[in-house]
Amino acid sequence: MHIVMVATECAPVAQASGLGDVVFGLSREVELRGHAVEIILPKYDCMRYDHIWGLRVTLADLWVPWYGGAVHCSVWFGYVHGRKCFFIEPHSQDHFFNRASYYGFPDEYMRWAFFSKAALEFLLRTNKRPDVIHCHDWHTALVPVLLYEIYQHAGMRDQRVCYTVHNFQHQGIAGENILWATGLGRPQYYFHPYRMRDDFNHAAVNLTKGAILYSNFVTTVSPQHAWEARYTDQGFGLGHSLSVHQGKFGGVLNGVDYET
Q: Rounded to an integer, what distance in angstroms lies between the CA atom of residue 75 and that of residue 228?
């Protein structure tokens, strides 16, 4: 199979948490089992560039629709300890990824909404049609929503999405402006309680809740944690949504890379 990971971290080049370890280690293991794996990441100014080999521009003109216009991006390619990685660099006054840090800004949800949109636009424009798009945590939760609502109608009908929640506490609570920015629009449609409306703040959309609805399969870090997310406060309010979609939700025990 052809699998594309979409994530905000990948050890050791861009890492702020255990997410980076999982993205690198899982990609390596899946590749060792005979699959073709590629990783899409933001091109941060604070990345460990000394861990990237052969970094070069692979697509100079990627125009990502954003609000009523488009943002010009360059896409770079390089190897991170053998993993094939694409890095998206937006040329925008928002400086989404040029902030000397990975996280911790007031516009977090807009940064990651743009990254999710850009990742799919990159796949569409380069005619990459992976069998599985694997997204991680709330930062990339809009990928399955955008794929189903927009990109399947533009030529990406056969792609399937696996969505992994590493931390249920952070879910991506956003206002309706994120719908207009990404081209989804139709706030009345997405604010339906069985789509993306947050169960506690009815004036906001919950990106993780949306990903649970739109993904083909949802995983978390262990079978035990999957049970906890449904039946205890470890789901941080998402227990009902996980129960509604229990047929496509399960826990897969996180592994460790013994060589690392």
A: 39
> What are the residue ranges in the chain where pLDDT is below 70?
none
For the entire predicted model, the pTM comes to: 0.97
Cα–Cα distance between 112 and 241 in angstroms, integer? 22
Whether residue 12 has a cis bond before it, omega within 30° of 0: yes
Give the closest residue to 240 by CA, choosing from 229, 250, 248, 224.
229
Q: Report pLDDT for 142.
A: 98
The predicted structure's pLDDT at residue 256: 77
Q: What's the CATH architecture for 2-251?
A: 3-Layer(aba) Sandwich (3.40)
- What the block records as the tokens of 61 is 């003109």
Q: How far is CA 177 from CA 4, 128, 149, 183, 205, in A?
A: 28, 29, 17, 10, 10
- Confidence (pLDDT) at 255: 83
pLDDT at 162: 98
Domain boundaries along the sequence of the chain: 2-251
